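Lecture 7 notes: from sequence to structure.
We start with the chain below.
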Amino acid sequence: MRRPSSWLLGGRQYSPATSLLLASPFLLLLLVTFILPLGALLHESLFLPAPTLIHYERALAEPVYLRVMLRTLRIAAAVTVLTLLLAWPLAWAMSRAGGVKFAVLVAAVLLPLWTSVLVRTYAWMVLLQKNGVINQMLMSLGAIDQPLTLLYTEAAVVIAMSHVLLPFMVLPIYSALRGIPDDYSRAAQMLGASEWATFREVIFPLSLPGVTSGCLMVFLLALGFFVTPALIGGPQQMMIATLVSQQVREMLDWPFAGALVGVMLAFVLLLAIVFKRAVRLDRFVGAS
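Predicted structure tokens for the same chain:
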């Protein structure tokens, strides 16, 4: 059911001025903690030491920085695909479960959100290191003779980030699947559709609002991930957030760091516009 354009409370409708007043604390926080610092960083990238685009030319021309940005996009895309493959069956099971089974599934999804990202990242380091749990188990089974190099690889970064970001894919898909009436599946089967045809023609298309919302959320979060890639991937798998931190904290090159942020911000804005026009996320969110 589509929610009205303005909130109702006790039969009274908020005026635009009242709505703006209620939102003003959040808008002020957003201005102070995000817009102003970001604007200052972008200003330095364009006007220090003088009005110039040299920092952007350096970011887009030097191969080492291009590799970091391409690696960031590649890892973010891989994490999005992996979380989608893991999240859809789990969200479907949640939407059809009840009682204790539903509570267990919800707890399995929400518990990672209540645990520090740093703790989960160190747990993956314990699992993936050369004398870690996975290598010891494989060697005890006789599958390998020497420990495998699992840590500080791109695959390790993708797996660890997928674990951290999985709830952000599960919850939107679950919300979409929960809104699909069971009558649709029964009607399709009564008309002669097989289970696969019902899934392909009815269930999955109706879950696309949640799928697209989850993919966009996970991809954008993965682009700016810092802790997990820095610890799991190390310098060999550096991503854009680690590079920006290095330029700010070690090189003290704030204008170039601002240029890196500006390039990724432009890509994110372009991606958001494409998603909005292609899948009409505003309509999907309003219909959920």
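Points to note: The first strand starts at residue 8 and ends at 9. The chain is about 75% helix and 0% strand.
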